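Why this split exists: single-chain examples teach little about how molecules sit against one another. For that reason, every record in the complexes split bundles all components of an assembly together and asks for one structure covering all of them. Below is a record exactly as it appears in the raw files.
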Amino acid sequence: MRKQLEGSQAVAQAVARCRPEVVCAYPITPQTHIVEALSRLALSGELERCEVVNVESEFAAMSVAIGASATGARAYTATASQGLLFMAEVLFNASGLGLPIVMTCANRAVGSPINIWNDHSDSMAMRDCGWIQLYASDNQEAVDLHIQAFRIAEALSTPVMVCMDGFVLTHAFEPLDVPSQEQVDGFLPGYEPRQVLDPDDPMTIGAMVGPEAFTEVRYLAHAKQIEALDFIPQVAEEFRERFGRASGGLLDSYRSEGAETVVVALGSVLGTLAEVVDELRDQGVAVGAVALKAFRPFPLEELRGVLGGAQRVIVLERALAVGIGGIVSSDVRTALAGLSVEAHTVIAGLGGRAITRRSLHALLAQALAGQLPELHFLDLRTDVIERELERTRDGGRPGPHAESILRDLRIVASGPV
Amino acid sequence: MSTPLPFYQTGTFAVGGRLLDEDDRAVQSDPERSNAITKGHRACQGCGEALGARVVLDAALRAADGRLVAANATGCLEVFSTPYPESSWRLPWIHSLFANAPAVATGVAAALRAKGRTDIRVVGQGGDGGTVDIGFACLSGMFERGDDVLYVCYDNQGYMNTGVQRSGATPPAARTATTEPLGGHSGNSFGQGKSAPLIAMAHEIPYVATATVADLRDLEQKVTRAMSFHGPRYIHVLVPCPLGWGSATGETILIARLAKESGLFPVFEAVEGRITSVARIRHKVAVEEYLRRQKRFAHLFAGDGRPDVLARLQTLANRNIERYGLLDDADEPTDIGLLDALATSERGPV
Amino acid sequence: MFSVRIHGRGGQGVVTAAELLAHAAFAVGLEAQAFPSFGSERMGAPVTAFCRTDDRPIRLREPIAEPDAVIVQDATLLHHVDVFGGLVADGYVLINSARDIGQLGLEELLERHQPSRIVTVPASEIARSHTGRPIPNAALLGALAALCGLVSLDGLGEAIEQRFGATAAAGNSAAARECFELVRSGRPLSETAHA
């Protein structure tokens, strides 16, 4: 039944219905509402047989999750931004150990400059940590992906990160359906660990592996993700059959059939993008959109299938790989290898800058006119950059860019003076 | 037991204690004991840590009736005991990372609690680097939350696994790869020290103890005692490292004993943040007796030597002796509060 | 689609207002989306929250740049923040103030928009009289219900009950009702105030 709920509250309720046994987290904006809600559910007794551990850091949060998961408990945590990076080492460890932990990443920019708003710098920085990464296009999907995530993680014995845009989704309040306990129980069986710390059957988890076998162990991690390319769509299909709505999968194509220009994106921008596609289609412009739902594993073949007929692909990225530009684009270009499809990288929505219909229309007009460069920054204020570069050229000690630009714009960090 | 046996008859070695009543015998004297860590590991000759870990885990296993899980930090102990595809561990054992053993142990304990498994106990362990330096935040968090974990630090006073660099537990004047006695320096500098046991006591956790591998009976008894408590417990074991200390491989036990007998390493136990018993010095020795046997202090004795540095080290030992009441004729040392101890100290135990 | 932008200060329940409005709209069968202008949580800092309603699922995720209605919960913001930015020509304005539009120096607003849709309400005082606290959010939503009919007073009451404890809910519902009646009666309308 649909109820008016905040994204974070709905995700917390969905996670609770997955019956986690250990929830451990450290507060960081914009993830907090999720773990606060889970704490309340556990303390009130509504979520039974669940230990909530208030750890002293994200590093510890993921470490506690590792201990719990290896002991056969269903473990969950959530973080964002600096927190995700603070647990970087432990993320690699969790996936290397093959522990099916589920984590929410409430996507947020990574400083410096410090910025609490949404972009994908955090999860993109951790793209190679061995976790499956799923991106929610909207809050209903965020709810559904968490339920699917436990299923995928435990079936493959590998951790899954559900990425949902911080604030844009976590703090949005809208009609959402959180499946009932019975529904979730019917979809998600109890956790049957592949490896467990059990005195009746002692095993060593986390042994040292040298050159003689390290490559093979790493290959198996890769093979597991390739297996996930088949399994993720199966889970999404089963979910659709049981719950009556499509959520998840590897990717979702929106009016991209016959489209000459296709925009590829991840996360909440897909909603605004769909509006723009509809408006342009109404004008007879052949545009479409593709939502990447799984970024790791990367659906090369499936993407090639939906993009192969296009003339132009625009990858809209909420993260910047300094020194090269796009992150997702590199993988998309791999998918397009050998095809005569023109590919563009557009960096957009960094640090919470809204991606608006107006900006997207302008972007597509530029692309359709054949004027979009290979790498483009959406809504980049070149005047601000020029002035700051000018100041820097003066020599002396111009000071940090962030502060100079704020002074230039007469802004106090989070809003106009 | 009818007549108290003299110390030399019970001994401190693995075979010791067979003259005692069965209940009082060492875990290691029992041929039927469980073997936490068994043959096949790659520890150096004379490794204090391998011995300490075996004694600690066997005692913990007995106390837990064989129902024990261990979480291990990266370090020598992990590297020498689990070379793929072999493992020397005969209990459920997990190694995750260098800095997170206490948190992994917390996770194991939380999972057991959630599952209602009160029969299984949890031990976390690491070396001094993994404990007093890089893993310290996780350790403090585990203490503060009251998690049901016994954490054991095997202190060999440096980063031995990476090639003998200085750690926060390296004693003053010790030579390591990063504290060479060059340019007029006499090895590791004299600092404020970092006493993990005293910091553990400041968390007011149920049980804190120090021990050395020179007195394995004492170590076993402390582990057994620790296992009788629930909540966070901490045991800090001095484990000489022949490689890093430059000591003879056959003198590991002797050197550990001299550390204690000189007063440089006070052996005590504390309940709820207050010291309740102290292992007295049996044959007091000058610090020089302890230092001379280790090449890491050789620069203190080369040429004209460094009597000034030796005097400072002796002062530290004397302060420990006074503070903890380590000599037989000292006042009864029981019930020393942490603050009392700190009030009379310039630095923690060396 | 109908879009409402709410301006206020941290501690005035601005985000809650947007959520209550969304809830009330959902109660009458509309799709509704509420979201804040995300920032650090600081008391007294300018805060903006948004609410969109529609009869079909809402996919847009951009901030509301061209609102159909603007609620100003704190009149001290009028000269600091561009609260009326992008307001559509036939848009609604609701300001929490005991003063009228003229006294607030906003005559220009009456020229650009339909004067009958520009209203001030002493919502803080009304809220204080019913709840003991000058938190004007629910009271202003009562006024909005009367002003533009987006939500019903009953739907609003249901949203308030769902959100607050019994005592606070009763007080806030009463404050919303008083504001609703006040606007419905036409007394606080700017034209009247000017007359």
